Amino acid sequence: MNLFDEGCKLAWKRIYIDKDRGIGNAYAEFGTIVHEIIKDYLQEKLLFFELPDIFLERFNKMQFLIPFGKGEMYKQAGLRYFRECNILPGFELLENEEEGRFLIGEHLHRGFADYVGTKYNDLYVIDFKTSKKYEGKDLGKKLRQLYFYSIPVREKYGKFPDILRFDFVRVGEEIEVPFNINKLQETKRWALKVINDIENETKFRPNNSNKFFCDHLCNHRMTCKYRSII
Ligand code: SF4
């Protein structure tokens, strides 16, 4: 939804209407490696002493090169995280990447929360991030994802989460935000507005104003004729 609302409508159309997923990118690939290792660890398929080597093995086989010569920095950050293996100490896991279904208006959506768990008596919804730490308005937008996850969490556990949390793997920091019912309503209103905009959209114009996105993130960056106009 963010891609349609604030990013490039053409890129959104190619993925969700044309069903052409294009190609991945280095940041997404790095994120997938980290998430899969965390998942296997939480599900006790990997032991803590195996994590650094598994990470290194998968990092060295990455298909995409991390841009701007930052590959070594990413590698060291991943190694540091998995060597310390300090994944959510004191938390009790309830679920990890389980599918949650929820309605926005008449539209059924699916989400996969990285981690739902408790600490003391608080219920948490947590997402692991390999990006830099969110700040300012960016944080508010990123929290929409956790507010969506909180809808199936309530159906399953009988209450909304107490805390929404991002764990920033590369920087070793986290952000915790108390759940706010008004923010959930705001998020739902935003989603309904975007769905309405999508239903009324006919032109799906390209938006190449974000050069970094066009050059490094967009799934269709290798074939898009609008990218070079920037
Ligand atoms: S390369 Fe840029 S303009 Fe082209 S589809 Fe992707 S985001 Fe849109």
- Name of the level-1 CATH class of the domain at 92-200: Alpha Beta
SS-derived structural category: alpha+beta
The level of helicity is 40-55%
Q: In the CATH scheme, what's the topology name of the domain at 92-200?
A: Lambda Exonuclease, Chain A
Strand coverage percent: 15-25%
Number of strands: 7
Q: What is the annotated CATH architecture of the domain at 92-200? A: Alpha-Beta Complex
Topology as H/E string? HHHHHEEEEEHEEHH
Cα-to-Cα separation, first versus last residue = 24 Å
Q: Major sheet: order of its strands?
A: 1-4-5-6-7
The average pLDDT value, as a whole number, equals 94
List the bound ligands.
iron/sulfur cluster
Rounded to an integer, what's the Rg over CA atoms? 19 Å
- Biggest sheet layout: 5 strands, mixed
Model regions low in confidence, pLDDT < 50 over at least 5 residues: none
Number of helices: 8
Describe the protein's architecture and organization.
A hairpin with a 2-residue loop joins β4 and β5. The radius of gyration is 19 Å and the shape is globular. The strands form two sheets. It has a five-stranded mixed β-sheet. Strands 2-3 form a two-stranded antiparallel ribbon. The protein has helices spanning 2-6, 9-16, 26-42, 51-60, 71-84, 136-157, 181-200, 211-217, and strands spanning 92-95, 99-104, 107-112, 115-119, 122-129, 163-168, 173-178. 21% of the residues are buried. The protein contains eight helices and seven strands. It has a domain at 92-200: Lambda Exonuclease, Chain A. It has 230 residues and is of the alpha+beta class. α3 runs antiparallel to α4 and α4 packs antiparallel against α5. The chain binds iron/sulfur cluster. Iron/sulfur cluster binds at residues 8, 10-11, 206-208, 213-214, 218, 220-221, 224, 226-227. Iron/sulfur cluster binds next to α2 and α8.
